[in-house]
Amino acid sequence: MAHGEHHYRVTVTWTGNTGSGTSGYRDYRRDHVVSAAGRPAIAGSSDPAFRGDASRWNPEDLLLASASACHQLWYLHLCADAGIAVLAYEDSAEATMVDGEGGHFTRIVLRPRVTVRAGDDLALAERLHHAAHAQCFVANSLKTPIDCVPVIVPATA
């Protein structure tokens, strides 16, 4: 694993000008595009509660997805190192946010369902979720509590 400082660049371009810019709160769309060199663009908006387009990703969804994906990637890495063969992984992650002045996420819950090779150590597979959380760059960057409630099942023959 590479150690040191890593840099990331994205461009977020607002595409919601309906003709008069931000002349009034209701006079513009929240649409934007997230892009980076060599990658597919992500159509973004705000949450529908904040006048956004529900068919587009919002920053809150992306934050939750980042926390879930980071945990998953660390978990897969740690399982590979420990001799646990993960055959399937799906996380039904949830988050709660309060808005208003100083709005923030109050809780993130990861609910990964993991299928491991028959005969692998299920207790170790569960414990590795704690280690993955400790290593997750996104979790380490947030002040929001992140709970992980894994379900580990052996593959059937």
From TrEMBL:
<protein>
    <submittedName>
        <fullName>Peroxiredoxin</fullName>
    </submittedName>
</protein>
<dbReference type="InterPro" id="IPR003718">
    <property type="entry name" value="OsmC/Ohr_fam"/>
</dbReference>
<dbReference type="Pfam" id="PF02566">
    <property type="entry name" value="OsmC"/>
</dbReference>
<dbReference type="InterPro" id="IPR036102">
    <property type="entry name" value="OsmC/Ohrsf"/>
</dbReference>
<dbReference type="InterPro" id="IPR015946">
    <property type="entry name" value="KH_dom-like_a/b"/>
</dbReference>
<dbReference type="InterPro" id="IPR052707">
    <property type="entry name" value="OsmC_Ohr_Peroxiredoxin"/>
</dbReference>
